[in-house]
Amino acid sequence: MSVTAGRGGGLLVAGTTSDAGKSVVTAGICRWLVRKGVKVAPFKAQNMSLNSYVTREGAEIGRAQAMQAAAARVEPSALMNPVLLKPGGDRSSQVVLMGKPVGELSARGYHAGRQEQLFGTVTECLEELRRTHDAVICEGAGSPAEINLRRSDIVNMGIARAGRLPVVVVGDIDRGGVFASFFGTTALLSPEDQELIAGYIVNKFRGDVSLLEPGLDMLRDLTGRRTFGVLPFTHGLGIDEEDGLRVSLRGAVRESVVASPHGADVLRVAVCAVPLMSNFTDVDALAAEPGVVVRFVDRPEELADADLVVVPGTRGTVRALAWLRERGLADALARRAAEGRPVLGVCGGFQLLGERIEDEVESRAGVVEGLGLLPVRVRFAAEKTLARPVGTALGERVEGYEIHHGVADVHGGDEPFLDGCRVGAVWGTHWHGSLESDGFRRAFLRRVAQAAERAFVPAPDTSFAALREEQLDRLGDLIEEHADTDALLRLIEDGVPAGAPFIPPGAP
């Protein structure tokens, strides 16, 4: 791949809206390029997400960027997501800079000045990646035409202009109005920003592409910009999500394989959809198992037929605890524990299953009584724990990652469970991602099935890592088969094309 001396090529994948498919397209381009022998890295200047990941050097970044790094077959690093915003209560977010938390800010405070202060860090990270890679595929956020935020933008046209990156805009045609969205997005940008818009990618198209072609021709006549691909609607192609209630891998597994139970029974898993739920991707590995059915719930009666209830992580442990009590879910969990029916708490979910929480950091609520299902007392520390632990549990090797302010004092239990413990059929741990360890997941599910009195048997050959690779290859195939890859490669190598016309009215 020919690039400017000392500086790799690049591309920014923007979107007409949030959830238009930017993350998927970025990952797909990364996987397509690396299969061509291109040394490529993903980049997102600023991400807002409660789903995060810990790199090997102990930096916290968005999970989508970690998965894009996996698509590019490179080790994820803080350079790939220098600014991460983790929403909390009272319209504020924790600001994570270069993988470390640096404080809480309201949206107004962030956009009023702090965001612009971070611009230098963001551009330095992008340039470092471009120095060390043949290509950097950047992902925008929301829409580049959010004109109320353009002055302080560091993730869309701000970073594109600083890096002289060509921009491809992705639109979700399944929502409708994609042509108006493409035209309107372009026409609301300033002349300087419009110069960088190279063209468009249509996402989630159903039907005969020939029926769409007249519209694509008219769009080119109206904007002077081409469409680089029409990607078909394909179920289960999402990567680890930024936010939302969806089991990201489950769709891919269920549609690519007839996943009948390996034993006589299925195993039903209910995940409590607590407020500010974080890293709910932990249950993807459960959903990948043949015969395991995962659903999110918010009512106590929905726990009645569950063989396992998972209380996931949350950015608001005390708030989630109050929510469980208000909805009657706390009482339902207590009844399950008394009856010996399985419950798993992860991170914030583990903390609220304990006896007491002392929080002067996250909620500043002081001392709050927990559900009392585990012999654990939690004190929130100002410094966040960010780690990639490795250990053994249930006779199997386990890898995970930790992201929490709460420090747990475990003072009992029937047996240790990673960094937590088990009492009866209630398990708790701070470790995210532990269920991705295949042997441990199977051992845990055997224990759950035994306690639930289900004739469920984990399949002996399910490899979560292999399923994830299969999914990333499908994303690469999507780009390779349905996009003009020759044109995309020229765009990445040569930069912003000349001569794109201005579309009035432009930014006000």
UniProtKB/TrEMBL annotation:
Pathway(s): Cofactor biosynthesis; adenosylcobalamin biosynthesis
Residue ranges annotated for the CobQ/CobB/MinD/ParA nucleotide binding domain, each copy included: 12-244
Keyword Hydrolase assigned: no
Family annotation (Gene3D superfamilies): 3.40.50.880, P-loop containing nucleotide triphosphate hydrolases
InterPro entries noted in UniProt: Class_I_gatase-like (IPR029062), CobQ/CobB/MinD/ParA_Nub-bd_dom (IPR002586), CobQ_GATase1 (IPR033949), CobQ_N (IPR047045), CobQ_synth (IPR004459), GATase_3 (IPR011698), P-loop_NTPase (IPR027417)
Function in brief: Catalyzes amidations at positions B, D, E, and G on adenosylcobyrinic A,C-diamide. NH(2) groups are provided by glutamine, and one molecule of ATP is hydrogenolyzed for each amidation.
Similarity annotation: Belongs to the CobB/CobQ family. CobQ subfamily.
The protein's name: Cobyric acid synthase
Upper taxonomic lineage: Bacteria, Bacillati, Actinomycetota, Actinomycetes, Kitasatosporales
Gene: cobQ
